[in-house]
Amino acid sequence: MTPIDPERWRRLDAILDELLQLEAPAREARLAELTCGQPDLRSQVEDLLRRDAAESTLLDSQAATRFEHLLADAAQEAASPADLAGTEIGPYRIVGKLGEGGMGVVFTARQAHPDRLVALKVLRAGIFAGSQQLRMFRREAESLGRLNHPGIAAIHDAGRTPEGLHWFAMERVEGSTLDTWARSRPAPDTRAEIELRVAVCAAICDAITHAHQRGVVHLDLKPSNVMVLPQAAPGAAPVVKVLDFGIARLTGGEAALTTIGSRGAGFVGTLAYMSPEQADGDPRDLDLRSDVYSLGVLFHEVFTGRVPVDVSGATLTEAARLVRTQEPARPSLACRLLRGDLETILLKALAKDPAQRYQSVAELGDDFRRWRQDLPIIGRPPSTAYQLRKIVARHRAALGFALALLLALLGAVGGTTWGLLKARRAEALARAEAGTAAETAKFLESVFRVADPGSGRGAEVTARELLENAVAGIDTSLAGQPEVRGRLLGVMGTAYRQLGLYRDARPLLEQAIALDRQVLGAEDPRVARSHYTLAGLLRRLGEFDAAREHYQAALDIRERLGQAEDLAASLTGLANLEYDRNRLPEAAALYRRAMALTAATAGDDSPRYASHLTGLALVHWRLGQADSACAKLERVVEIQRRSLAPDDLDLAWSLSTLSRFYLDGIDRPRARELAAEALAVQERALGPDHTDVAETLDVLANLHRLEGSYDVALDLHTRALAIWEKALGTDHATYAMALDHLSRDLSDVGRLEEAIAAAERVEAIFVRTLDPAHPALISSRSRLGSFYRDAGDHARARRLLEQALARCEEHYGKDGRETTEIVIELARLEILQRRWSAAGQLYDRALTQAAALPDSSLVLPRLRQEIAEFRAAAAGS
Fold this sequence. Notes:
The protein is of the alpha+beta class. The protein has four domains: about 1-170, Phosphorylase Kinase, domain 1; about 175-380, Orthogonal Bundle (Transferase(Phosphotransferase), domain 1), CATH 1.10.510; about 395-520, no CATH class; about 700-875, Serine Threonine Protein Phosphatase 5, Tetratricopeptide repeat, CATH 1.25.40. It is built from 37 helices and eleven strands. Helix 7 runs antiparallel to helix 10 (about 290-305) and helix 8 runs parallel beside helix 11. The longest helix is centred in the N-terminal third of the chain and has 23 residues, at about 190-215. The protein is globular.
């Protein structure tokens, strides 16, 4: 074959890259334009397109080899990347070769500023790289660019030399590959050695979880792609680094996996670590659970020294069949200490059916940590006997799971109340209030006796049953002890509220206030706390006037008592209420007062300060100050990550809220990462039916809707709505907001009549419960108008849209995002009624307003396309 001139090749490559972005009909037309009068050029491009299509079949090594032959011919007159020692690429001077793979050559290189050694990866085919190789090479760089985790080798820089060599520089990792490290360790026949290896596996899971949360699925996990660094000090946990994202799939829209390698020998080595669906060859079946399986293979080898399915010596076809069909060897046959939970963990990761595996690498990593803490693993069915064995192993009292959950919820009450729940601390409490503490402990012991394993029910008892038992016994068992009754009613009411059972909590908290005032007097700090707790519940129930009375009562007591921290909490409670009523300047002023008080007493990096700053961030977000809002909430998360446990519910709520900010700001990978982290914590701590879970489900549903997964969005919003209905009933503003989101999904999937019915219910609830200027009411009215328009009821549509526009202009100005969206909806109505001039004027207004928005780059392209289509339609009429 005649070598291709490098300049000619670059022209071919540029044309091929452009054409591969187009669908077939458009591709043919564009090819004719680009090669007009150049039949030889057209023939070469068509040949490359045919080869690219052939190479896109998974495991088609023959097609890949033919394509490589073309590149080899072209490279006859070019320098090889392997000959680069001593040369400079960008700001890096090549020191020597580190290694090479199917796609690239990796060098050690030195960077002058900062002075450091890096790993520099250069595309093997040099300037003659084909479009497929270039896409994979760029995909690896893009994958690494999304990631920032101590367990993943970081990318520093990327580029292309004037001669056309593609490269990127990354962190240089010095250590041992995972299999070499495992072989260098003592045999895993002691608990200490097993624990060390479990710690390494958990660290690898953390790194891959980060990648998944950023939308990157690795798909080539094998021992050579995981490095273990030397321990920093004796006894310190080893550090791991995950490498080589060369065939990673980018779940945010990147093309499916197209190739894994080009040489048969490499296939067999990699195939032992592939998931069954990956070996099956259909890229549509691949998702993050494929990485779960590959990690299962890695970890099996870490503990046993062998892979679970031996494919050595098998042909490519036979090796793929073995991976798909042969059940893995039981790890305990090679290492008896793995028998039990660790074997269960490994075998669950290695399940042939993805639905039977851990559904995320995070779950796999969590189970390794649970094993180290002698906690029940999620990979094993939670039988009562199993739960009790784990409890005994932890040397804790034999209490059922529901009681443990209830105690965790009650822990949020704080201070003395939490102490009253622990009999072992009764002696310490007795020094301050012996009678109350002893009677409270005695009462709780009798209530929770049903949770003792000896009672026969054990962990089957639910937290709600325990609360109901407690409430039923308070009046009869403690009739003559109003102080104990008041305290316990407050504890139980707070627990009901924490469980999301708001309507059950209300009468208990109201009784608690009455008893506290009777026994302690109106000015006692515990009475102020009771007012504050009830106010928060009433706010959640939408009874804003009653909530204000109790917030104000708590604030007045705390001001007289000079309790700065509690006073700041009361200010934030009132600020939250003003925020709910859309009185944003008043809310901001109260948040700032609370922040100033807390900064003076606890510092501006304390969790208390962060809780007040959260409110101010929400105000800024509603005012359209997105950058300020995100910066404030990022600081909140930074403070909470530093000060709170990773599974703290306040941190989870902040992550969920920040994910909503980023979703609206169209940073979908960041939103997905934050929401997934929040939901995992919330579901573990609160169960699947808590209102905090519902709020995070709403974020995930909206994310799926933006990505066009309307059915998934509908399912998630339906689940969230059911949670709100259970907690608040069907006549509450928050329930209506969830129903409003569901109405959009119904319209998206073509169920317009149901969407209209839902939106009409939303409108009726909002009219009864919200201020006429509330943005939720304006938005829902606009949405209902658009539904009527789509259903052909143009008169009702116009009335609602014009009402929404007038209200929006009155309260939020004529140039904001919300106003612009309603103007666009009206323009669409005018088109349907063939009022072209009126539609044009509205579109002109919308275009002017959209250009002035802070995120105009996200709005303008779509709007301009819509206007162009309108003008074409108007001209045709």
